[in-house]
């Protein structure tokens, strides 16, 4: 098992930002957690509201990513999602919405923001995970779209226990990935929220088939089957 150095904060702007700012002096597999984030970051420049009760943490990858090609970085997001989903499936039933949301029914329980620090090659990678554990009410834009584990199982969960379970599972998935194992794609497809759902690409309706061997979303469009990367697709009636 990798050795994780865990740094805990009560409050911090963002665990991702902390690792991006300090990656040079920190060792690989440093994990930063915070009870609250005052400037939590979501995908596509969105805010990630980070009230007390949930798990917010980021993992730093450095040397091990040197050999990874740019397009493989998105696979690490899939692996992180897979690790979280496998752990949460011991508590409730959840699926993964490509590329990186963990869902319970049609509601999102966890979001992942993977950020690379790179010039011509990747120097470091930060995997940020926000998991709704013990918060019971959500307000604003996410009111009807977010869910916590407590909403489902009606009791608090120990954040430290869940963190260590996720790190252990991430360890297993990442080790296999670094050895070139593509099993995560098959596992991701089995747990995929998007199977057979409809999506839109530039206004055209397509049917989602599966995640392909490169971690791209394979869809059936009018002009045939094609693989697309995240950002190119809008999903019907779902929260991305
Ligand atoms: C998303 O679904 O938009 C991704 C959300 C990622 C949130 C986590 S919380 C811990 C880490 N620090 C951040 O500022 N963001 C990520």
Q: What is the C-alpha radius of gyration, as a whole number of Å?
A: 17 Å
Order of helices and strands: EHEEHEEEEHHHEEEEE
Number of strands: 12
Shape: globular
Helix content: 25-40%
Give the termini distance in whole angstroms. Answer: 33 Å
The total of helices stands at 5
What is bound: which ligands? biotin
Low-confidence stretches: none
Structure, explained:
The protein is an alpha+beta fold and 240 residues long. It has five helices and twelve strands. It has helices at residues 15-22, 70-88, 149-153, 159-178, 183-190; strands spanning 5-12, 30-37, 55-61, 95-97, 101-104, 107-118, 122-131, 198-201, 204-211, 217-221, 224-228, 234-235. α2 crosses α4 (159-178). The longest helix is centred in the last third of the chain and has 20 residues, at 159-178. The chain is globular and about 50 Å long. Bound molecules: biotin. Biotin is lined by residues 14-16, 37, 40-43, 46, 48, 56-58, 101, 111-113, 128-130.
Throw out a few tags for this protein:
binds biotin; 240 residues; 12 strands; alpha+beta; 7-stranded mixed beta sheet; 5-stranded antiparallel beta sheet; 25% helix
